[in-house]
Write a structure and sequence with these properties.
This protein is of the alpha/beta class. Helices cover about 30% and strands about 20% of the residues.
Length: about 240
């Protein structure tokens, strides 16, 4: 795992986006098309704002959606479909955006998306890490073994409290208890992973991810075993790491 630490969230986001563009550009030059995964949430604000400014030929890039709540409409402020449509899809017009629909039968939606993503490999996955070290909505203890690309998951209390704390919902009771998430194995099958994690509130999760054992109780720790994963941090999120 390659780790980069920046003084500001803006610099972190710019560097993560630059790395992503380099990888996608190389893929386009090699294959003529690319397939990527995009995460959402507060951790991705700076990276996405820089990513959409680039002059990549997005018409050759297919985008997959990392996770979505079950039971909330696309009009809801916390909808991740809404988030990506507004912050990415409508701005760059990719070749395709395979969004997760949290309002239909969850098992059927997992099967539908699983069949599409299985058609070819993912070139670059843009992800984050939760305060409980979740990867996508794979809360601890995460399922490291399932081969299913998309799964229905229960959101634990720490995860739901994070969503409330970030201002996406008016109360804890309003935060859904279930979601559709890309599985850990599907994320790890990506050729390259760019993980962007700002804020001191995630420092403990980052420390466990980087310095601890690879265990389901720290889902993001699995990134240690990926051959091409890059972790972009700011001073807050990196604050508990041991000096090199």
């Amino acid at each position: 795992m390659e780790i980069s630490i920046f003084d500001t969230k803006a610099a972190m986001g710019d560097a993560a986006a630059t790395k992503g563009v380099e990888l996608i550009s190389a893929t386009l030059n090699e294959k003529g098309s690319a397939r990527i995964i995009l995460a959402t949430g507060a951790s991705q604000f700076e990276m996405l704002s820089e990513l959409v400014k680039t002059d990549l030929d997005w018409s050759k890039v297919t985008v997959f959606h990392l996770d979505e709540y079950i039971g909330i409409p696309i009009s809801h402020p916390a909808s991740f479909r809404k988030y990506l449509n507004e912050r990415f899809v409508e701005l760059v017009k990719p070749a395709a955006f395979h969004a997760i629909d949290g309002e239909v039968d969850p098992e059927g939606e997992c099967a539908r998306l699983g069949a599409i993503i299985a058609e070819n490999e993912i070139d670059v996955a843009f992800v984050g890490i939760g305060e409980n070290a979740h990867l996508a909505f794979n809360d601890p203890p995460a399922d490291f073994n399932t081969e299913e690309p998309y799964i229905v998951v229960d959101l634990d209390l720490a995860c739901r409290q994070q969503q409330l704390g970030e201002g996406w919902f008016p109360s804890l009771e309003a935060v859904p208890e279930k979601a559709i998430s890309m599985s850990v194995r599907q994320i790890m099958a990506s050729k390259a992973i760019i993980c962007t994690v700002p804020d001191a509130r995630k420092a403990e999760a980052v420390q466990k991810t980087v310095e601890g054992e690879v265990v389901p109780e720290v889902p993001a720790s699995i990134l240690q075993s990926h051959p091409q994963s890059s972790l972009f941090l700011d001073q807050g999120s990196a604050s508990l790491l041991k000096p090199e």
